[in-house]
What does this fold into?
Amino acid sequence: MTIKPDGNMKLNEFASEKTLKAGGCRQLTHCPYCHGRAIKRGMRKKKYENIQRYYCENCRRPFTSAITKHKTFPLRVIMDSLTLYSRLHTAGEISKKIKESHGLSVSQQTISSWVKEYEEYIPFIRMRDFVSKKYSRKEMIEESKMFHQQIYDFKYHRAKLDCILDEEFRHQKFKPLKEFLELVNDECPHQLFQNTAKRASEFKDAFSLDEVKITPKNNAAVKIGNFVVQAVVNNKLRHEVLQNFMLSNDTATVAVEVPVIIDSEDIRHYKHELNFEIPIQLSDGEYITGHIDLVQVRNGSIHILDYKPSAKKAKPVSQLTTYALALARLTGLRLYHFKCAWFDGQNYYEFFPLHVVYKLRKAKKLPKAQMRLASTLKPT
It folds into this structure.
């Protein structure tokens, strides 16, 4: 069921009141103070939810999994309020929507205080005033459900991408990305995604990682991820909530669940025209499909992000490289402009997909006899 005022925010994007009362925080296995083993020790009853309590068998300190302390309302309610604010709703409208979706009465003053308190997690508010004068709520974010064997919620933040392209000259070369995202709803070949096809996620360890530098970083994605995941236990729902929160509230995420496709002709182009090392073999008429979790534009690059609940153990380099190859081909942009990364609430790992498929050719060292001969042949 769609909330009527603008039709953009759906009730199923919010947690139900029953879910909140059952406790929605992440499960902990280690003590945040000494990293000792965490033992569950009952529940802390709050007004609107129950929070799991823990006890460390090493340092014997009690703790909970919640980052936000001393709050009457569940974090999920706070997050949804912040998202609605970033989507150009007033405090009064947000209060009504929270009542509809969660069954909780939140005052406008409380909502305004949340916006100030959690400002670091919603940097989009720096763009909000400008965007509100130029776009309506319906125009700002384009959304559609894509039935590609399973349901994918494609969302594209038109207003944010326009601001990014206009603010910095170095981002203007990414206008083909905007053109591609504008056409996804109308020109996506849904039948190819619905048919049995190879998925990018199936290609594990397909590419050589020689000369590929994977760099761990601590950036806004980790910070927001850590903030969001504590409110949701279910991994699938956590994925959706994180995507929606980052799309609405950060200053870099411009699209989520972006459908991409790469076929045999594209692979041949990369191999024979650009001399890329691509170990994927596709026959004529075969293709690979996938959906990119998050697409960001920042720092002069297009970033392809994949959320992995256990990022430290995962290494989806081949999957992300395939996404980058597909999106570069679909937009006509150089692979040089892309970066890929996977992350969770604790870790972020980044690499250049160009380094995966294009290896520097080192000049072979000539034998000493040939070097002496070459030196004698040099003109004086």
